[in-house]
Design goal:
Elements lengths: L2 E5 L2 E3 L5 E8 L7 E7 L6 E6 L8 E3 L7 E6 L4 E6 L8 E9 L4 E4 L3 E5 L2
Parallel strand pairs: 2-11
Antiparallel strand pairs: 1-3, 3-8, 4-5, 4-9, 5-6, 7-8, 9-10, 9-11
Amino acid sequence: QVQLVESGGGLVQPGGSLRLSCVASGITFSTYTMSWYRQTPGKERELVASISRASAGGSTNYADSVKGRFTISRDNRKNTVYLQMNDLKPDDTAVYYCHGRLIGVGLAYWGQGTQVTVSS
């Protein structure tokens, strides 16, 4: 059974930081491209950041709105992907979802989401 379990969300003031974690089980984690998406009510889910599988060098990609503030990383020994979020803004408020995809095979999985609220 595949599970992606996010944690680390919460309420933070503008300018603050949070680190999200996503622990994967039931997959060969190192072979998956891992991503973070976010969604607010009435809007489509948007890609925030992604990191390629280990054999592809672990390259990263970011949405323009978070470049320079967010950092995605992975620890293949712990089956965990992280999203370090700094200088948070109210517009970053959303439910953040972990996503894992096995390129070329058509397998993809979602976590249940974790709420991030940026407010004073």
